[in-house]
């Protein structure tokens, strides 16, 4: 899994029927210092994440292990909304601080 920040949404009215009802998010990956990396990816959202939240993204075949996604052509899925991240005993991110 990788840490990412939700940057936006992706809307598609014409898609494979197996993707009907799936919410897509544009996520930008985060490095170990909390800096945004230049890479973006579209991920299926299974947890109801919103823009500016930090999330855990599962990629590859693991993304299809999410309930009801086994037969969908998905290679990235948001599987958790992050509350806190700490590195070397220092806080890198806190959702509570972002909500202020």
Give a written overview of the molecule.
The chain contains one helix and seven strands, in the order βββββββα. By secondary structure, the protein is mainly beta. The protein has one domain: OB fold (Dihydrolipoamide Acetyltransferase, E2P) (Beta Barrel). Strand 6 and strand 7 form a beta hairpin. The protein starts with a strand and ends with a helix. The mean pLDDT is 87.
Structure characteristics:
100 residues, mainly beta, OB fold (Dihydrolipoamide Acetyltransferase, E2P), 1 helix, 7 strands
Summarize the structure.
The chain is mainly beta and 100 residues long. The chain is built from 1 helix and 7 strands; from the N terminus they run E-E-E-E-E-E-E-H. The model has no long low-confidence stretch (mean pLDDT 87).
Q: Any idea what the CATH architecture is?
A: Beta Barrel
Order of helices and strands: EEEEEEEH
**Residue ranges: pLDDT <50 for 5 or more in a row?**
none
Task: Give the class-level CATH name.
Answer: Mainly Beta
Principal-axes shape call: elongated
Helix/strand/pairing category: mainly beta
What do we call the CATH homologous superfamily?
EutN/Ccml
Helix content class: under 10%
CATH topology: OB fold (Dihydrolipoamide Acetyltransferase, E2P)
> Sheet with the most strands?
5 strands, mixed, barrel
Give the count of helical stretches: 1
Overall tally of structural domains: 1
Q: Mean pLDDT score, rounded?
A: 87
- Radius of gyration, in Å, reads 14 Å
Strand residue percentage? over 45%
Distance between the termini: 27 Å
Q: How do the strands of the widest beta sheet line up side by side?
A: 1-2-3-5-4
Number of strands: 7
Oligomer: single chain
